[in-house]
Design brief:
about 10% strand; about 375 residues; Aspartate Aminotransferase, domain 1; about 40% helix; alpha/beta; 12 strands
Length: about 375
């Protein structure tokens, strides 16, 4: 296969392209002051101070207490920390109301702590049913864990309504906010705990974050043991440059956020109109969705050849969540929404962002037109 001269990247939901100015800023700081934050010297204490400044930033942003903000290594670990906190606070918890759209790490964390996921029903809107949740709560109140916005569909769940329902029944409500954090105005007040990850917003890999409110705190909550880092909640030498990159990237993403969202919406509208003209079906088209995410069914069965054809043209898209996109199994999100396995195997995800330009959009549309005609 001939390598393309330019890459047109449309897999931002898998990982956001790194913001090199931010990475250089963080690594320049680390290069000159590389001291272990847990050390006893004043140089180490200086680096611990930088971490606390970052912690305070995320605390102010979310409205969560500083002691409830914990840095880890990945989004997966952040999800495990989130569920660990809930389980330690409510040790009798054996089940949770959740959605069929969660990341695999969220279900894994539930399983590790002996919590059965009770999946809420959905339909082709991609939204969970608040009415069903109310009925379930009236029968048996349980903790709730719902992804803020779908990794594949981009559908934004009714967080305020779910949060109000959780408060009414006095149960905790937590969320995986990997795709929504830094990409939309989030309502942190609706949830008692959240998780997010730096590489989803251009900070590069190496830093996840878990936030919990006072009502989920216990003295010994945490996941990794063996050191007193992160106030005893997560052992291991802190990844200082990645923590700083996460802070800087968040500040950058939130600057003029609405302007960025509007720009993405214009791109999304243009792409979706062209896709519909080609016979593609936009999944959850009329539901509230992330501005930069399109999940669609293409009108041909040869999905592998389609993806390869786009790659030959330098266009990179995805067949779904990066945790399972290589498996080539039908999207469980789509089958839960009522699509057949055959239809779900025709699904592709297009996600873009700040670095996307008009020429990228044109390359994407041209690739779709040529390949759908050929295949």
């Amino acid at each position: 296969m001939k390598s393309p001269t330019k890459i047109h990247y449309f897999d931002y939901n898998a990982t956001h392209p790194p913001n090199f100015s931010i990475l250089e800023r963080a690594w320049d700081s680390y290069k000159n002051e590389f001291f272990n934050p847990s050390g006893a010297s004043r140089f180490s204490l200086g680096n611990q101070g930088k971490i606390e400044v970052a912690r305070k930033y995320f605390s102010n942003l979310s409205g969560y207490p500083m002691r409830g903000i914990v840095f880890s290594s990945t989004g997966t670990e952040a999800n495990h920390l989130l569920i660990a906190a809930l389980k330690l606070k409510f040790p009798d918890t054996t089940a949770m109301y959740t959605s069929p759209f969660e990341h695999a790490s969220f279900y894994s964390a539930l399983n590790m702590h002996g919590i059965k996921p009770v999946l809420l029903k959905t339909d082709k809107t991609g939204l969970v049913s608040v009415d069903e949740l109310r009925k379930l709560m009236e029968y048996l109140p349980l903790p709730v864990g719902i992804i803020y916005a779908g990794n594949e569909t981009g559908v934004i769940q009714p967080m305020e309504e779910i949060g109000a329902l959780a408060r009414e029944f006095s149960v905790p409500f937590v969320t995986d906010a990997m795709q929504s954090f830094g990409k939309m105005i989030m309502n942190f007040e609706s949830v008692d705990g959240f998780s997010c990850s730096g590489h989803k917003i251009g900070a590069g890999p190496g830093c996840g974050l878990t936030g919990i409110r006072e009502n989920l705190e216990t003295k010994d909550w945490g996941f990794m043991r063996g050191g007193n880092q992160e106030n005893g909640h997560r052992a291991g030498t802190e990844n200082l440059p990645s923590i700083l990159s996460f802070q800087f990237a968040t500040q950058s993403k939130l600057e003029n956020l609405q302007t960025k969202v509007d720009r993405n919406l214009n791109f999304r509208k243009k792409i979706e109109q062209e896709l519909k003209n080609l016979g593609c079906e936009i999944v959850a088209e009329n539901s509230p969705r992330l501005s930069h995410t399109i999940f669609c069914l293409i009108p041909i069965p040869e999905l592998d050849f389609f993806i390869m054809g786009l790659e030959e043209r330098g266009v990179i898209i995805s067949t779904g969540s990066s945790c399972k996109s290589r498996a080539r199994n039908a999207s469980t999100a789509l089958t839960a929404m009522g699509y057949s396995s055959e239809d779900a195997l025709r699904a592709v995800r297009i996600s873009f962002g700040d670095g996307t330009e008009e020429e990228d959009i044109e390359a994407l549309i041209t690739g779709f037109k040529e390949l759908i005609k050929q295949l």
